[in-house]
């Protein structure tokens, strides 16, 4: 049974289908592992034992009758603490929402439950999802699987830790500027950022409505595809036999993303590209000068919307917030409505330039994060280091959000160094097929 804790969600589903794994025994195995883990309280904010066992019993009955609803029917998942779950506290990592207990599940949790997946509980996260580091002194800071003295990546920090430490088959997170991809990279997982607007946001605590997206953190690209399916109430694409990389054409993005790379990150990126070339892919350097302007618009676009959504709640009790997060929210007050509208107009022009530059490539590649996971003690004691680390952590991933793309984070084989694969808007299935082929080359 211990092997179950490291298997992919897809393999667990196939085991259930073959009658080799029972959903109730599987869920009990995960719950026992959570309860026994010394770091469980840093990873899970709530463990929903009763719900998980009830859902597992129902999955067991369906499996016995041959009536499974999806390959993931009976597979246990974790959920970031911003997805509403009926009767369970959902606080988005903030004491501003302490004691908030919704009456209904979020739409994606309803869909996933209807497709048979089991809800293990809620995972810790950056406060109100407004940090790429995963450091949360207000609630809990989950561990990084490669260095427990370092930040785990955020804001879907607990989602990543739950999978990396064998306490969930996969986790569901959100990504507004990199919040699925950064913790996936720093914990050696696969993370999928979906296109904004593709997956329903009903019942999800917002940060920036125009940039918020939902996506899985998983052990394989196949898992990510299956999870995309159940989040939407479908079966997802079949990724078991990806087409070879020979003849594929990828762009190695140069603008912005290659600046100031940590030496380990730079070496991991070069090695990953070498393996893709060895597998037959063509890799072409790509400059997109308009990205410089788009990145400069980020403070206006993100902080204005975030503070606009949260101003009344924040200013009613600002003392409840971590000072660094509070300062970042309040920075949105310096911009006017006309600044915000003008910034969106400029961003749309940058997006058109990106579309033209990226046309003709199967995907655009870059390091997920230019830095390695930063030290937690220094983040807490050094303001300038915190700000610099947060901005750098989010720099490369933010391009996917600003350009309105779907994107993957894939492990490179170097701990905490991920390869970012940027696709076209609303082309998740094509991105996943490409990602599955890249995953094989990097294995």
TrEMBL record:
Pfam families: Amidase (PF01425)
PROSITE patterns: AMIDASES (PS00571)
InterPro entries listed in its UniProt record: Amidase (IPR000120), Amidase_CS (IPR020556), Amidase_dom (IPR023631), AS_sf (IPR036928)
Domain of life (superkingdom): Bacteria
Residues annotated as domain Amidase: 26-432
Annotated transmembrane regions: none
Entry's Gene Ontology molecular function annotations: catalytic activity
Name the record gives this protein: Amidase
Organism the protein comes from: Leisingera methylohalidivorans DSM 14336
């Amino acid at each position: 049974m211990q092997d179950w804790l490291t298997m992919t969600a897809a393999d667990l589903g196939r085991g259930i289908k073959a009658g080799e794994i029972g959903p109730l025994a599987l869920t009990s195995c995960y719950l026992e592992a959570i309860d026994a883990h010394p770091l469980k309280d840093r990873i899970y904010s709530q463990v929903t034992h009763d719900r998980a066992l009830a859902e597992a019993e129902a999955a067991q009955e369906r499996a016995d009758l041959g009536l499974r609803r999806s390959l993931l029917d009976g597979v246990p998942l974790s959920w970031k603490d911003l997805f509403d779950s009926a009767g369970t506290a959902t606080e988005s990592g903030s004491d501003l929402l302490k004691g908030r207990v919704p009456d209904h599940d979020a739409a994606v949790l309803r869909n996933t439950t209807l497709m048979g997946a089991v809800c293990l509980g809620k995972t810790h996260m950056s406060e109100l999802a407004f940090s790429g580091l995963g450091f949360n002194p207000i609630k809990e800071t989950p561990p990084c699987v490669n260095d427990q003295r370092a930040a785990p990546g955020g804001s879907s920090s607990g989602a990543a830790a739950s999978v990396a430490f064998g306490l969930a088959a996969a986790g569901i997170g959100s990504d507004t500027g990199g919040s699925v991809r950064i913790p996936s990279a720093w914990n050696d997982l696969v993370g999928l950022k979906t296109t904004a607007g593709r997956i329903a946001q009903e019942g999800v605590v917002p940060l920036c409505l125009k940039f918020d997206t939902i996506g899985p953190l998983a052990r394989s690209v196949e898992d990510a595809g299956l999870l995309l399916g159940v989040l939407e109430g479908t079966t997802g694409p079949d990724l078991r036999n990806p087409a070879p990389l020979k003849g594929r054409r990828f762009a190695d993005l140069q603008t912005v993303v290659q600046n100031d790379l940590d030496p380990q990150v730079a070496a991991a990126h070069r090695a990953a590209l070498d393996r893709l070339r060895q597998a037959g892919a063509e890799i072409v350097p790509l400059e997109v000068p308009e990205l410089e302007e788009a990145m400069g618009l980020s403070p206006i676009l993100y902080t204005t919307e975030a503070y606009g959504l949260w101003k009344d709640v924040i200013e009613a009790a600002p003392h409840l917030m971590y000072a660094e997060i509070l300062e970042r929210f309040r920075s949105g007050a310096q911009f006017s409505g006309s600044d915000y509208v003008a910034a969106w107009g400029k961003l749309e022009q940058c997006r058109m330039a990106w579309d033209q530059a990226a046309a003709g490539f199967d995907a655009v590649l870059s390091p997920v994060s230019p830095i390695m996971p930063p030290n937690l003690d220094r983040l807490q004691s050094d303001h300038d280091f915190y700000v610099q680390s947060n901005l750098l952590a989010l720099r490369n991933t933010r391009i996917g959000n600003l350009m309105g793309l779907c994107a993957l984070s894939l492990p490179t084989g170097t701990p905490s160094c991920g390869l970012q694969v940027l696709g076209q808007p609303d082309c998740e299935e094509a991105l996943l097929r490409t990602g599955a082929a890249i995953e094989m080359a990097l294995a």
